[in-house]
Amino acid sequence: MTTDWSRERILIFAPHPDDETLGCGGLMSKAKDAGAEVFVQFFTVGDTADQSPKGFSTAQERHTEIKKVADHFRWDDWHMALPGDQYHLRLDTMARVDINKLVEQDSPLSITRLRPTVVIAPHRTSYNQDHQVVAEAVHTSLRPSDHRLRHHPKLVLAYEEAADQWRTDAVVPPNLIVGLRERDVEAKLVGMQMYGSQSHDHPHTRSELTLRSLAALRGMQAGVAHGEGYHVLRHLL
Predict the structure, then answer these.
(1) What InterPro entries does the record tag this protein with (predicted)?
(2) Which residue ranges make up each domain of the chain?
C-alpha cells in the first residue's frame, strides 16, 4: 500500500497533549513535508500531578507546550474539546454518546465538519482509560453506513505508544509500517522535547531512547531504517 500524502487531509485524535507526537510524530513530519493537511483534536488537559521534576504541571503550561508543538509540526489547526479538570484523566465518567457526538459532529474538527481523508486514533488496547474511551468513540463514529449520508474517510488507523505494550492483549504487532526518514525521527524527538512536562530520561516510555528504539524496531520489520507502526481499521482502495 502506498499513500500520496500530498493529497491527504489527516485528522489525529489525541486524548491528551503529547499522544499525537508519541504515536504519529514521524508521520506528521513526513506528511507535512509532502504537502498534507494535518489537524489534531485533543480531548482533555488539566492541572496534573506527574513525574516531572517539580511533580506538577498546570493546564496553562500544557497549552503553552501545545502551541510550540503545533508550530514545530506546522499543524493546520488544533482544538481542545474538554479543557479543565472535570474530565481530565476521567473521560470514562462522561456519557459515551456525548463523546461520540464531539467526534462525529459537534467539535470544530469533527469528522462531519472537517471531512478528513485519513483518521488516526489511539489503539483500544491501551491501558489508559482515556485512550480506550477515545478509541471506542472514534470507532463508533466511523461505523459503516451509506457514504452519501455520513462521511467515510478512506484510511482509518490506530497508532501505538510504547506504554501500550504493557497490556497482554496488545501483543499483536502493527500491520502497517510508515517508513520514516532520519529527519522525521528527529522531528518527533524534538516535538516530544517541547512537551517538557511529559518527556523523561531513560528508562521511561517517553524517553528519547525508547522512541528511537521503537522507530528502529518498526523500521527493521519493514526492511527500512526507521518506521512507525499502525493498525489498519479501514482502507478503501
Answers:
(1) GlcNAc_PI_deacetylase-related, LmbE-like_dom_sf
(2) 5-235
Spell out the long-range contacts of 168-172 with Cβ–Cβ below 8 A and sequence spacing 24 or more.
169/125, 170/123, 170/125, 170/126, 172/231
Question: Which CATH superfamily, name and number, covers 5-235?
Answer: LmbE-like (3.40.50.10320)
The answer to whether the pTM exceeds 0.90 is yes
Distance of alpha carbon 32 from alpha carbon 20, whole angstroms: 14
Asked if the model's pLDDT at residue 27 lies above 70, the reply is: yes
Residue 197 CA to residue 131 CA, distance in Å, equals: 19
224, exposed or middle or buried, with CB in 10 Å at 0-12, 13-18, 19+?
A: middle
Overall size of the chain counted in residues: 237
- The mean-pLDDT minimum among 1-15, 62-76, 106-120, 164-178 falls in 164-178
Question: What is the number of other CB atoms lying within 10 angstroms of the CB of residue 108?
Answer: 12
Q: 51 pLDDT band (50/70/90 cuts)?
A: low
Query: Which residue from 191, 34, 10 is spatially nearest to 109, judged by alpha carbons?
Result: 10
Between 217 and 200, the higher pLDDT residue: 217
| pLDDT for position 50 | 67
DSSP structural state of residue 110: -
pLDDT at 167: 77
Scan for cell 478509541, then name that residue: 135
Judged by DSSP in three states, 226 sits in: strand
- How remote is the C-alpha of 41 from its chain's centroid? 9
Strands 155-159 and 226-235 turn out to be antiparallel
Contact 157, 176 (CB under 8 A): yes
